[in-house]
Amino acid sequence: MIDLKKRQWINLLEILDKMQKQKINYDKVLQKMKADWQAKNAQPRVLLHSCCAPCSTYTLKNLSEAAQVTVLYANPNIHPANEYHRRLEEQKRFITAFNQRNAQTIGVIETGYEPEKFVRMVREADLENEPEEGKRCTLCFQLRLTLAAQQAVCGGYDYFASTLTISPMKDAELINQLGLKLQERYGVLYLPSDFKKGGGYQQSIQLSKEYGIYRQHYCGCLFAARQQGIDLKTVNQEAKHYLDQLDSQNASS
User: Fold this and answer.
1) What is the CATH number of the domain that holds 244?
2) Are 157 and 63 in contact (CB under 8 A)?
3) CA–CA gap between residue 56 and residue 40 (Å, rounded)
4) Total number of domains in the chain
5) Burial level of 161, CB count in 10 A (0-12/13-18/19+)?
6) Would you list the DSSP string of 89-126?
7) What is the pLDDT of residues 14-69, one digit of tens each?
8) Which of 158, 162, 226, 240 is deepest in the core (most CB within 10 A)?
């Protein structure tokens, strides 16, 4: 277990202790931490969990200015498999383009596709019919942030973070509190955020258009898709067509 008190980087808990009962603006906390890095002329290594390419656009623009970022694609919640791989390929394609445009060397790590893990957890908790933004989403956030924390420890990163807070549909307070609990559990610093603040979400939409990124119509969860009436057969067919085209392009290049 890493002794967080001995780390050179700011620990979010230290900031929260000073704020006491004030309402927490996680975006301002992040800006304070970035200013501290810049004052030290240092760039921490940040492992950024990304739920999808569109959500990583503004997030990477924000963080790569002050940190050495590696993207972690860890999303066992996505169904069907072809859709998972389509989103993964879009993530890789975006990062390649982002690196070229911004003279960056951001890498991508994939944890592997294990949808049965997510489905089993949902069913064991009897959350198949839980409404969106309820306990099933909390379980999903917990699972993906745990994967990020574990990978951050294995890779010796200074912080782990997530793009999840850029969505106006997701509870940033909840996500940050889950991250803090995992910081204590795994002994690796959690980087707080509320990336939708300051027009971050709107910028992510604009950047997605600029880079020509595929924007999906549902989070990826099988249970949420059913509740929303998503035509998963069509989603699967379109994803397969995308992947087949990509294979053809790769074979001819």
Assistant:
1) 3.40.50.620
2) no
3) 26
4) 1
5) buried
6) HHHHHHHHHHHHHHT---EEEE----HHHHHHHHHHTT
7) 666 555 556 789 999 999 999 999 999 999 999 999 999 999 999 999 999 999 99
8) 162
